[in-house]
Amino acid sequence: MKPAMMEYYAPTGLDEAATLLAEAAADGGKVIAGGQSLIPMMNFRLVRPPVLIDLGGVAELTSMEVTGSHLSLGAMVTTATVASSSLVRRDWPLLAHAATWVGHDQIRNRGTVGGSVVHADPSAEMPAAMLLADARLEVRSATGSRTVDAADFFWGYMSTALEEDEILVRLSLEIPPPGTRWGFREFAQRHGDFAEAGAACLLPPGGRPRVVAFGAADRPFRAAETESALAADPAADAETLRRAVSRDAEQAGVADRAKIRLLAAMVLRAAAMARD
Ligand SMILES: Cc1cc2nc3c(=O)[nH]c(=O)nc-3n(C[C@H](O)[C@H](O)[C@H](O)COP(=O)(O)OP(=O)(O)OC[C@H]3O[C@@H](n4cnc5c(N)ncnc54)[C@H](O)[C@@H]3O)c2cc1C
Q1: What is the mean pLDDT of residues 209-224?
Q2: Atom 14, ligand 1: which residue's CA is nearest?
Q3: Does CATH place domain 181-275 in 3.30.390.50?
Q4: 50: which residues sit within 8 A by CB, 6+ positions away?
Q5: Where are the domains of the chain?
Q6: Quick check: CB of 219 below 6 Å from ligand 1?
Q7: Which of 128, 101, 143, 140 is nearest to 201 (CA)?
Q8: Where would I find the FAD-binding PCMH-type domain in this sequence (predicted)?
Q9: What angle do CA 72, 76, 82 make, to 5 degrees?
Q10: What is the CA radius of gyration of the chain?
Q11: Mean pLDDT over residues 108-118, rounded?
Q12: Which of 274, 273, 225 is nearest to 249 (CA)?
């Protein structure tokens, strides 16, 4: 299958892109980033945007920098860049590691961190990492800008707080304190497949542990009970953590016992990786 006919625009600035989207959004017009999710959906005619606005030429969306205590990523930074960047590997090694789990080289070379976050697949690594990082998402329309916390961004299966005329511009992540330990594990049938369950864990020295689970519910979620168990006892045993994960998963609406067991195994491994 090939996509239905559409008009194609290639703006070179953010203002121009936002204006084009303001005109096209009401009729289903969309921006396209790496196209690694949108093009397959268009090929299968799951979506038929009459207008495509290509963000590939918008330079404002490709920068990556450390400003003060934050790592700032333009939405069009590719997953391959996130995985290989010395900046990200130094300041947010968990994010760089998580990016290596996204699909294959070809997908990572074109797919973008912003595209993955907006696409909001519940099994995707980048949304989970953004939730773990408490990232702040800067979004922009023709009428203004606003900032959304990652905790408020993911609404459900491929559903987010982004309005249809808004563009995700930038993601800002506070850099964890020195000495922060981290772990990341996921299970997929084959390398490069979407995760069937995964977990990311951050253990800041003297701070509250943070744990995010993904691939199990309709969106990634913070595992608050598991975080409390690790806060109460950083060396919490496997059975204690399994019970905590089970409660977290049930609160997130996961009913499948096999899925919960798999998720618990991933959380235990991520926590062990962080503690080792
Ligand atoms: C074979 C295969 C395997 C894959 N495996 C994985 C995997 O294991 N893990 C994983 O996480 N992903 C996986 N993916 C998906 C891949 O990571 C996609 O690249 C990603 O989900 C979307 O990023 P993109 O830049 O390609 O976005 P696009 O496909 O261009 O866009 C996706 C959606 O986001 C919107 N969008 C994009 N950028 C913006 C923006 N800045 N502002 C507003 N809206 C925007 C688009 O309008 C569209 O609705 C896989 C894809 C394929 C084809």
Answers
A1: 98
A2: 103
A3: yes
A4: 6, 7, 24, 27, 28, 29
A5: 1-175, 181-275
A6: no
A7: 128
A8: 1-178
A9: 60
A10: 19
A11: 98
A12: 225
Q: How far is CA 30 from the centre of its chain?
A: 19
ipTM of the complex: 0.98
- Residue 37 CA to ligand 1 centre (angstroms): 4
Percent of the chain exceeding pLDDT 70 equals: 100
Report pLDDT digits (tens) over 128-180. Answer: 999 999 999 999 999 999 999 999 999 999 999 999 999 999 999 999 999 99
Report how far ligand 1's centroid is from the alpha carbon of 176 (Å). 26
Which amino acid appears at position 130 of this protein?
Answer: M
| Residue 83, ligand 1, Cβ within 6 A | no
What pLDDT does residue 173 have? 98
* Segment 59-74 mean pLDDT: 96
Please state which CATH number belongs to domain 1-175: 3.30.465.10
